[in-house]
Every structure is written in structure tokens, then in C-alpha cells.
């Protein structure tokens, strides 16, 4: 029983600390999908992030209850803690499962959308939404094309308008006078955008997956500890029944 009290107190403090890390993972996923919303048109992809944020908020009162119960047992507090732990388990398991499945699912979707945007690039209209999305991604990630800069040579209009050029967003930041001409390949970003986008997406999703998995184990330990304490405190007020 004393070990259960000590463990519950320790887990209570852990829950406080992990709430911030859990919220960070949720915000990371939400902001990343918002920044690249032109590529991720399915709004449900941000669901693991929102579930992680909800779990982070519930972790705070859960930690308070765990520390309070370890000091002074209260039947109402113990029951409330069990309900909160059950709710957290549902949120964490849902978030982890969705994050893992979305990481694998969106890889093919990314390649398809990026390939379409590059292939249909409008060289004559710089204000085209597709052009703006591609330029933003290439500048932000310092990448060029889907797999590399040669993807721009296969576009539907490159041979007519710019037979030996890529968009200026492919230029490296340190080359301020770069015009995207293929005669100066050393001034262009070498890596493709698909690999970098997949890396960012999978990092955010796997961060949530593994963090939720660890929290599930800790929450199960907290539930077992709370259950041990509840066994040693019978329902005195219900003995008449």
C-alpha cells in the first residue's frame, strides 16, 4: 500500500510534466497540416493532434488528483481519478492509432499531389495558387521538385517556356543572384521536397504515437496503484446493504 501511494504521487508529478510535451506534439501536428493545407486537403488528418491536446488538458487535473490521493485518500477523488484515467486511455489509444495509420497513408497522397502541382505548373502566371504553394514549400524546406530538380524538366509546359530553367524558389538561400538556370546546378537545392515533407509528417505523427504509448503504460500503473488503495478502503457507508 505504501508503495502504491509513492508510485501514485510520482506519477502525479510525471503527468504534470508530460502535459506540456503532449500539448507540444498536438500543436506540432496541427500547425504543420495548417502550413501545408494545400497538400493535405483532408481535415481529419489533424485529428490526432486535437486528441493529443485534449489529453494534455485532462492530464493536469489527473496529476493533481493523483498527488492528492497519495496524501489523503478520498473515495470521491479515487473514483474521479479512475474515470479520468479511463478517458485518457481512450484518447491516447485513439490518437496513437490514428497517428500511426496516417503516417503510412499520407505518403502516397503526398507524392501524388506534389507530382500534380509540379507537372501542372503555370510558368506564365506567378499568382496561380498551385504555383504559390509549390514555391512556398520549396523555399521553406530548401528543396526542388518531387524527387529532385529534374522533375521540372518533365512538366507539361517547361519545354515551351523555360526549357533550361526551374522556379527561382529552387535556389539556395546563399545564392541571391540565382535565376533557376540549369547551367548553374550548384546553386539549386539538391534534395526533393517529397522526402523532406514525409520526414516532417512522420516525425510529428510518430512523436505522438510513441508519447501516447508511454503515457498509456503510466496511466495503467496509476490505475493499478489507485485500485490497490481503494481495496484497502472499503465502502463503510454501504455496509448496511
Describe what this molecule looks like in 3D.
The chain has 241 residues and is mainly alpha-helical. The chain folds into two domains: 1-108 and 204-232; 118-193, no CATH class. The protein has six helices and no strands. The protein has helices at residues 2-35, 47-71, 75-119, 129-141, 158-161, 193-231. Helix 1 (2-35) runs antiparallel to helix 2 (47-71) and helix 3 packs antiparallel against helix 6 (193-231). The longest helix has 45 residues, at 75-119. The chain is elongated. The mean pLDDT is 80. One of its GO terms (cellular component) is plasma membrane.
Structural topology:
Blueprint: H1 2-35, H2 47-71, H3 75-119, H4 129-141, H5 158-161, H6 193-231
Helix pairs in contact: 1-2, 1-6, 2-3, 2-6, 3-6
Brief descriptors of the model:
TSN3 protein, membrane, mainly alpha, Tetraspanin_EC2_sf, transmembrane helix, 241 residues, Tetraspanin/Peripherin
Q: Structural class of the secondary structure composition?
A: mainly alpha
Classify the beta-strand content into a percent band: under 5%
Count of the domains: 2
Query: Helix fraction?
Result: 55-70%
Q: What average pLDDT do the residues reach?
A: 80
Distance between the termini: 27 Å
**Largest beta-sheet characterization:** none
Low-confidence runs (pLDDT<50, min 5 residues)?
A: none
The tally of strands reads 0
Give me the strand/helix succession.
HHHHHH
- Mass-distribution shape: elongated
- How large is the radius of gyration? 26 Å
- Give the helix tally: 6
Please give a quick description of this structure.
This protein is mainly α. It is 66% helix and 0% strand.
Amino acid at each position: 500500500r505504501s508503495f502504491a501511494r509513492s508510485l501514485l504521487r510520482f506519477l502525479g508529478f510525471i503527468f504534470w510534466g508530460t502535459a506540456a510535451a503532449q500539448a507540444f506534439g498536438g500543436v506540432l501536428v496541427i500547425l504543420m497540416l495548417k502550413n501545408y493545407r494545400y497538400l493535405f486537403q483532408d481535415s481529419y488528418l489533424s485529428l490526432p493532434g486535437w486528441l493529443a491536446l485534449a489529453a494534455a488538458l485532462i492530464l493536469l487535473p489527473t496529476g493533481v488528483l493523483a498527488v492528492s490521493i497519495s496524501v489523503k485518500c478520498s473515495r470521491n477523488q479515487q473514483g474521479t481519478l479512475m474515470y479520468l484515467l479511463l478517458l485518457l486511455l481512450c484518447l491516447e489509444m485513439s490518437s496513437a492509432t490514428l497517428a500511426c495509420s496516417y503516417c503510412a497513408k499520407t505518403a502516397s497522397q503526398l507524392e501524388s499531389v506534389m507530382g500534380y502541382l509540379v507537372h501542372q505548373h503555370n510558368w506564365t502566371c506567378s499568382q496561380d495558387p498551385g504555383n504559390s504553394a509549390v514555391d512556398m514549400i520549396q523555399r521553406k524546406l530548401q528543396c526542388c521538385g518531387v524527387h529532385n530538380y529534374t522533375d521540372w524538366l518533365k512538366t507539361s509546359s517547361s519545354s515551351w517556356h523555360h526549357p533550361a530553367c526551374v522556379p527561382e524558389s529552387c535556389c539556395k538561400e546563399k545564392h541571391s543572384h540565382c535565376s533557376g538556370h540549369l547551367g548553374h546546378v550548384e546553386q539549386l537545392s539538391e534534395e526533393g521536397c517529397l522526402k523532406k515533407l514525409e520526414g516532417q509528417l512522420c516525425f510529428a505523427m510518430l512523436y505522438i504515437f510513441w508519447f501516447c504509448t508511454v503515457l498509456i503504460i503510466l496511466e495503467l500503473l496509476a490505475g493499478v496503484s489507485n485500485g490497490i488503495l481503494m481495496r484497502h478502503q472499503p465502502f463503510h457507508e454501504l455496509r448496511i446493504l
